Predict the 3D structure of the following.
Amino acid sequence: MTSGVFGIGTSALLAYQRALSTTGHNIANVGTEGYSRQRVDLAVRTPQFSGAGYFGQGVDIDGVNRITDQFVQRQLMDNTSGAGRQQVFYQYAQRADNLLADADAGLSPVLQQFFAAVQDVANDPTSTTARQVLISQGEALGDRFAFVQRRMDEQRQLVEGQIGAAVTDINSLAQGIAGLNQQIAEASGRGSAPNDLLDQRDALLEELAGKISVQTLPQDDGSVNVLIGTGQSLVVGNQATTLVATRTGADPTRTEVAVTSPNSSIRVTELLSGGELGALLDVRRDLLDPAQNALGRTAVGLALSFNELHAQGVDLDGVAGGQFFTLPNAEVLGARGNTATGAPTVSYTDAAALTTSDYRLNFDGVEWQVTRAGSPTPLATGAPGDTIAVDGLEIDLAGLAGAAAGDTFEIRPTRTAAAQLDVAISDPRAFAAALPPDTPGANVAGDNRNALALAGLSTERVLANGTSSIAGSYSELVASVGVKTRQAELSAAAQGRMLEDSQAQRDSVSGVNLDEEAANLLRYQQAYQAAAQVISVANNMFDTLLGAVRR
């Protein structure tokens, strides 16, 4: 009987000692980010039967468990990923919006000044000063196009660099999660829950979610597998897959993301979403690419339309007008694995038919096919050596030789065009303000009819199949980026609030409440003291028994 009391008291003493230790651990980590409070779960020992019935044997420690909610944790990770994506996208959209809509640094004021200078020549076609101002304003317009393009290129370069940095961070986090998986699996195999290691892994998973959207699959050994994209494995058990940021595609300036293994490398750029990396890829694809394409179309449309009208007129000496603007060159990029030599030549034919799309030129072994980027549907086809007409472009294949099935070229008609706009004339007399006279050789010095037509291009709908003017197309670009910026701002604010709510919900479930811990501390202290008293009583009983035996 005495030994039973000793055993009961000792079990209680050990149990409440662990409970006090765990409570102290909770209090010590009240300020630790990501810490989940722990609780000692106690269980009644199996009673022992004696002649008078079943008698209790004390208490056992059933385990030390984290207080967590997997649904809340999953929601926190999703909102972390969403908030990370929206905040980064908004930052870049705001920069683009500030640039394009700027009353001083944007394109609109210089475009207005250029057409005002054309109108000044129309008002006084014989004025050499007005003609010189027009050329200067044309050069200023080309410089402003180039300035805006350059600033957007700077943002693009920043995005490309940050993609590489995000990939490095993701790899580091994946390695950390894999290492913790190993430790957790080993500890779980010994029958104990490594709560602090689980907290560390959750913290890394949350940080990873801020970089890229992830899915987690718990395993029986306590480890978690981590998937990205459409199910690509990033972490499996104690092994982490390596992501690489590579520039091995047709465009040497464009960073792609690939999953590597000892024997292969698979590009996954288009499959990734969420978090900082997903935002950077979205910024490039959904913000910078279309914005620069639209800016370039405005530049090409201006040059093509202005040159076409200018060529219909004559200058002060009665000579037919030539090009006023130099036409930009389309960007053509060949895939690195191409067997074909040479490259297609792309020329602009119709400003109204130009789009803001990029194109792919693919050879199937018999003919070349032109598709819009991201679409498998052919727009036009042509045999080797042919010229293919599509969307205001002519693609001359005569310069290609030795093509094999699978050869591919990426054509970006307007991506870099804004950087190439320049004035082709330097002599003020060469501006063709007049139309050819009805009588050959007649004096055209006072004729302003062609200058009036050129000034009218400011509002004439010469782009987007006759639905947009030169100035209007730029205004549409500004409006489009402005809408994206506003949407991103609202989404970032909403996602930020959702993240705060998720963090508050997690803290309410898993966070340390000092008032509750203080109450537990007092309760466990009293229980510990009572258990010690039980042992003291058992000791007195034992002493009494020994004394009786000695007599």
